[in-house]
Design the sequence.
């Protein structure tokens, strides 16, 4: 009898967890981020050495090996070539696509390491520790050498957007960095 | 008597000294006109001549006469005198002159741009999307032959020469040299550059090859750097221009479109004094659209 009660309790706990998990996933993926605003905020607030400039979708496809069908929206700012600084924000069609985009972003970082290692080695520390966040359908890369400032700005942005958007964790700090 | 004397002097033929003065005056006028016609190209420090590239002094052909060189000869500077085009005689020793009408982006659909980080920046910020770009940060006239930098469809990297063999282009735009400024021997630079050109000509024998001048660096950079300075750049540009003349290649004096009044890269063009921002990449593109051989 005691065993049945314990088993029943465990079953209930299991069911509660199973019911809660999709909710967690929903909280992670069912929010929207203004891709342009996010990239622009980083460009304006982070102390980049170089002037970063937005590039076309066609150019993004050249430097990021991403399947166009994986992307809903994207915004990329690049350096003139003086530095390795860069901002890239992607909205993927789903979480699986975001993971594929993440792989492409790491490839871009690796390519830049190869480019700069003999050219401007002073840029390598930025590339060795890029800010890269994957949260739900969103992938955010910021190569600046100021990762703490990037986190702070993104937290501000997500808190602000949390008030506007109907997120499950409305008003809560953004997680996933 | 006075009246009669005056009439006599007036009606008789002028004295010998007067005739001599008249002849000398006419001679001076004729010499002046000739001097203006054959006026040497304007040069000032970093600024290379950009007068129209036709051979001077051969007369002006009819407008409909076909020419092999540039089809227009609008000068870039006010102090330049347009030289009329001459059939079949393209002067490769001079930069490609400005045309009257700019081409559109479509003009570059059969073009390939080859270069280092500056061309890479141009590609990303302003380059016509129709063109092909084989660029690599730190590219030099020696590594261009050996370094795999072009990503093939399968993701593997290949050399620029190998990539050229896979496609066909009618126009090849090259800018190399900034990364070689530190070489001990400038003649080695131009020798290697010549080998690159020879290889490209072997692969693309029909292509128009445009050698672009090395863009200057900012005044601040030039004054503070033993290697990356405008004296060295000017020297290398002289070698490139000479090679263009010897090998019958088109020399594009693109440096002209980014200079300030002192002959340096404009201070608002770059954060590091070398790489151009979008505004100046746009100027670069505008220059290319206005300086071409056959539209």
Sequence:
């Amino acid at each position: 009898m005691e065993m049945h009660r314990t088993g029943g309790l465990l079953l209930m706990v299991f069911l509660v967890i199973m019911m809660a998990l999709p909710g967690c996933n929903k909280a992670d993926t069912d929010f929207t981020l203004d891709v342009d605003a996010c990239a622009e905020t980083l460009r304006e607030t982070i102390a980049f050495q170089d002037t970063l400039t937005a590039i076309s979708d066609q150019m993004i496809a050249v430097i990021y090996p991403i399947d166009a069908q994986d992307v809903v929206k994207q915004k990329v700012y690049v350096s003139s070539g003086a530095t390795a600084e860069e901002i890239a924000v992607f909205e993927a069609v789903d979480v699986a696509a975001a993971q594929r985009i993440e792989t492409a972003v790491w490839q871009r970082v690796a390519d830049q390491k190869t480019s700069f290692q003999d050219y401007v080695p002073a840029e390598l520390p930025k590339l060795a520790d890029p800010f890269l966040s994957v949260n739900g359908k969103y992938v955010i890369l910021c190569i600046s050498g100021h990762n703490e400032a990037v986190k702070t700005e993104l937290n501000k942005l997500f808190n602000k957007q949390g008030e506007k958007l109907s997120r499950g964790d409305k008003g809560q700090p953004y997680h996933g960095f | 008597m006075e009246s009669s004397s005056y009439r006599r002097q007036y009606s008789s033929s002028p004295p010998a000294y007067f005739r001599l003065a008249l002849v000398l005056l006419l001679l001076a006028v004729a010499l002046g006109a000739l001097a203006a016609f054959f006026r040497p190209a304007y040069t000032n420090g970093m600024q290379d001549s950009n007068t129209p590239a036709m051979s001077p002094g051969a007369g002006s052909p009819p407008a409909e006469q076909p020419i092999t060189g540039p089809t227009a000869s609008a000068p870039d500077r006010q102090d330049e005198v347009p030289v009329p085009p001459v059939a079949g005689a393209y002067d490769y020793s001079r930069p490609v002159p400005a045309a009257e009408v700019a081409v559109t982006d479509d003009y570059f659909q059969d073009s390939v741009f080859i270069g280092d980080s500056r061309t890479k920046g141009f590609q990303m910020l302003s380059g016509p999307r129709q063109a092909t770009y084989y660029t690599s940060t730190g590219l030099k006239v020696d590594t261009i032959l050996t370094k795999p930098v072009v990503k093939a469809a399968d993701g593997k990297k290949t050399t620029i020469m190998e990539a050229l063999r896979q496609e066909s282009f009618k126009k090849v735009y090259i800018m190399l040299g900034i990364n070689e400024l530190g070489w001990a021997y400038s003649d080695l630079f131009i020798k290697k550059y010549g080998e690159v050109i020879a290889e490209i000509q072997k692969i693309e024998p029909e292509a128009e090859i445009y050698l672009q001048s090395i863009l200057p660096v900012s005044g601040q950079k030039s004054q503070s750097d033993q290697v990356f300075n405008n004296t060295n750049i000017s020297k290398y540009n002289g070698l490139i221009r000479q090679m263009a003349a010897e090998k019958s290649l088109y020399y594009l004096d693109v440096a002209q479109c980014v200079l300030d009044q002192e002959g340096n890269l404009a201070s608002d063009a770059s954060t590091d004094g070398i790489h151009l921002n979008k505004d100046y990449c746009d100027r670069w593109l505008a220059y290319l659209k206005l300086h071409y051989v056959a539209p």
Summary: Chain B touches chain A at residues 117-118, 120-121, 123-125, 129, 136-138, 155, 270-272, 274-278 (CB under 8 Å).
